[in-house]
Amino acid sequence: MALKIGTLAKLTHTTAPTIRYYEKIGLLPPAHRQFGGQRFYVEDDVRRLTFIRRCRDFDLSIEQVRMLVALMRSSDRSCERARDMAQRHLESMRARIVELQALERTVAGLVEACDASRARASDHCCEAWQRARGSA
After folding, report:
1. In whole angstroms, what is the distance from residue 21 CA to residue 62 CA?
2. Given CB 3.0 to 4.6 Å as the disulfide criterion, which of 18, 52, 102, 130 pairs with 14?
3. 129 vs 124: CA distance, rounded Å
């Protein structure tokens, strides 16, 4: 199966410039070329690019992705190294979840204060929210 760059982009939810960039920095191998120099991709490229995109969606750095891709492609891959990297990222993700939950509580409080303020029609919702939080 030979895919053009636009088809690969659509299948992997990326863009053609991103694909070319990943080729340029070595995350993706250089594309195969058809007669006339047009890039084409194969099923292995779809799998690899999907993996890279998912890693990036979860905020792994380019270097972390590069290490994971190298570990996956290496015949003497170290499961311990991959596990350690994944563990560090998992800890970072869990810390971000805690921060997001705190932000969620704050925003929910703002929504509640605005709803209460609207019901009274006497306060500006931000002022009501600040009073409710004890910061005004």
Report:
1. 11
2. 18
3. 9
Rounded to whole angstroms, how far apart are CA atoms 81 and 89? Answer: 12
Q: Which two tokens stand for residue 40?
A: 């084409």
Q: For the segment 72-102, what is each residue's pLDDT rounded down to a tens digit?
A: 776 666 677 777 877 887 898 899 899 999 9
Instruction: Say if residues 55 and 67 touch (Cβ distance below 8 Å).
Output: no
The alpha-helical segments, DSSP class H, found in the chain are: 5-12, 16-24, 43-57, 62-73, 79-120, 125-133
Tokens of 125: 């919702």
pTM: 0.62
> 3-state DSSP call for residue 19?
helix
